[in-house]
Please model this.
Amino acid sequence: MENGRSSSGKKDTSVCEIPSVAAGEIAAICKTHGNDKHRMLDILRDVQDRYRCISPSALNRIAEATGLTRIEVEGVASFYSFLSLTPRGRISIRLCDDIVDRYTGLEAVTSVFEEVLGIRVGETSPDGAFSLEYTPCIGMCDQAPAAMINDVVLTKLTVETARHFAKTLKSGQSPEDLISDRFASLTPHERATRMVDNNVRHAGDVLLGPVPEEAGLNHAIGMTPTQIFTAIEESGLRGCGGAGFTTGRKWRFAASERAEQRFVICNADEGEPGTFKDRVLLTERPQLIIEGMTIAARAIGASEGILYLRGEYVYLRELLEQALEERRRRGLLGENILGIRGFNFDVRLQLGAGAYICGEEGALISSCEGLPGEPKTRPPFPVNRGYLGFPTVVNNVETFCHAARILDRGARWFRDIGTEGSHGTKLFSICGDCLNPGIYELPYGHTVWEILERVGGEDAAAVQVGGPSGTMIARDSFHRKLTFDDLATGGAIIVFNGKRNILEIVEYYMSFFVHESCGYCTPCRVGNVFLQKAIRKFRKGLANPEDIEYLKDLSGTIIETSRCGLGMTSPNPVLTTLQNFPLVYAAVTKPNKDGIRDTFNIQSAIDGARKIAKRRSYIFDRDFTQ
Model:
């Protein structure tokens, strides 16, 4: 093989070719980002976007410009699923493979794309025009099936629309043409809402109702940091990403650290399957998000902030960049904000590249630093030593929005909403088997049954609260309340009716965790694989009653010994269904009359050998003929 071509003369798509003239262009990309190794993800994304891959020569050039070794650069490039060391198509089609998409017609949609484009999932067309692949949840579960076509999002796909889109792309039109023939003339907000329906079913009084501009920030500039901390603490605001740590205490801890610099990071990497609430706030309340970040910066003494946007939300990049630039023009970001000397704070947008683990704050900080998105060992915690080793406040989108509203209306106003220990409103992302999926802003304290009645999901047999890392409950638990002290959730509620196979759902969620583990620690990297295989054994009807204890013991080991939150919660699909759906497991673990149950399937064991040898067995295949 020479020059990237096989002996047959066809282009070998396994080789990443970048023209020699590109060396200067790659150097220019690095220079755009200050040749800063901490901006490695931005550099690699730009190279990927321009050349459809990151070649060996590109790795060398980037390493040289940033003062790193090639292996360090390659370690980052190989970590994120949206980056590739081998060529991808000029148009990359990523079909969302979430369980909700599977239940709403993904298989038929996939078949259409494969048929029209002439490639299978996981392949790139010989002419390099198209790549087709599956990707985990892209935050569109309320309008599934969905797909990303380069930076364009398509939702509510059907066989008919998929065929139309595929043919349009094959005819030479761009992904943007699928949205509008005047896409270039649309505003960033118009583009975003043409692609994705906000799907706000109920707007509450805090976030999605009328919000005055900069009211919270205007109050904050007349307050001392201590007064700001106290107001946030007295409001009862807790982190809205799921962990529920008291927000005011977190800010106070960061401010109390002696340091030359401090940072504020907004975690907009909502990768938990079934969660899409931040998507709506990013679209409709970008100013409020940044206002909340600015208030936090005022309180802790930070001059720099980062808004970390998940790669799947790339379609919102221009909208957010526009919001940041507008605030700079209005004197709401930059130096001497609102004319106050020394009040300096600015925010940069950091785009992720397809890694669920980066939703964990340590992994997110690593990613912002230009490293693979691996969690950091704690302690120290980010408030003590976070981004670049400095005290760092990391909160999610919803939390910063709430903080801004609290400074506007007061701690008592917010505290009086909701229930004791769970104050304020919560954005619920509701999807699955219900009539009205979408976003609901409601006070804490509603029961699951009240939610189901509101969304048209009364026939639910199971509800996944908090996404895969949360809790799956049965009908006998629908009286439980959505609060921090009962059913805690980052916002995701997925409804499943009685037609769905619980073990199929559990196996999918375990496959998701296997795929998304960063691989750093053995319990998570290996243990989740064993859990997935064990669930598959149950689904095949090959499990012994003792296998239930194996599931519990292995889950406990993974939780106790994993390094970060992914491993500590990944067994939850198994543990919560064992607890709440025991009959599902019991039904497939009944022993034979003699008390012995076969657990070894000879046919499955030799199936691989059949494929390799391309023949059947005259011993184990009874209908075998020579």
In short: The chain is about 40% helix and 15% strand. The mean pLDDT is 92. The first strand starts at residue 91 and ends at 96. Residues 215-416 form a domain with the Rossmann fold fold (CATH 3.40.50.11540).
